[in-house]
Amino acid sequence: MQMDFHYYCIAVLARAAGFNKEDALVIAYASQYTDDATESELIHLDTDDGNLRFDPVRTAYEGLDLLGALNWSAQKRVYIPFHFLPPRHFAPENSDTFSFVTRPAVGALSGDQRSLGEMLLEQAASEALCNNRRRLCRIGIALHTIADTWAHQQFSGRWNRTENDVEEIYVYDREAGEYRHLVPENVILDALPQIGHAEAGYFPDLAYQHWKCDLKQSPAFVERDNVKVFLEAAQAIYDLLCPLEKMAPDEPIPWTDIAPSLWALFSAGPAKEASVIDRMTIQTYRHYHMQDIAARCGRWQAEFDHLFRPYPVGDRYAYERHRWRDKALEGDTRWDDWSQREWDRMSPLGLEANFWDSLWVHFHRAALRQRHFVLERLP
Asked: Hey, how many other C-beta atoms are within 10 angstroms of the C-beta on 282?
């Protein structure tokens, strides 16, 4: 999933489930920042009593180089606990049926079995209300991971040829009423490592996409209408959020009041069609998608901005990647594309007055809790 779901849709779902405007926006920001927290090196802090070092928790796999992505440490610390959650926790008695392959966090297990995703949200929501900022960050990160269990179903967060080998991708052409075989994409994507849905490209994450492909695992054929999948995920998340305890809650909005708008936004299609040049390389394809997602997020703002008016102080229904960093730190926080050498030469950063209670710090503490929770439940 992309920013349209992880931030804009999650904010609407939290608001509709009864969270007040401020809390809903914090949950949504933490959800989206899970895709954007590329900081994994020690960050030097300039303090009066000497330099401290803050150890952040990387949750984003964006920006990992090939060798980094192929490292099992990155897979178990980033991919699996935040983006490709196994359906259930490991236990010796179910060792023969345990799987790393992701399944939807609600409704995929038989009987009264609780999924690892449901356990994750329950643990996050159990944080005391007196520590509400940390609690909201934990809920937001958990919701990102839960949402991804729908988009990332049938893929795993580890390098595995059986679980993540994708062949013969087709996308549905609405105007022609038939599937179209992708030629350059299949060649380009087939060269990527078999981690997550790398070989399926962006297609699992695009809300509007109707697509199909062949897999090595069972079932060997996948056909997916992302509009239906994303709406199912949204309703499941709404149902999970409604009973959660809230501080200063607002009146909930019935699911039936928001569902038609969600359907329309998911199914609206790309803001612009990809050209042949856009599709020629990974770099040009990424640039195209960055432009497209920005335009699609604008549709969400136009539809739901009124739910957050008047805006809480210092916030609004618009995602800005560096907002939490800049409210916590003084200095250059545009480190997403830094090389290791640039990290090593990083100057100490100043601290804003509320650094230790900033949402950026709470996010990283919350991410650490989630990582530990998941890793302790893997074989």
From this structure: 12
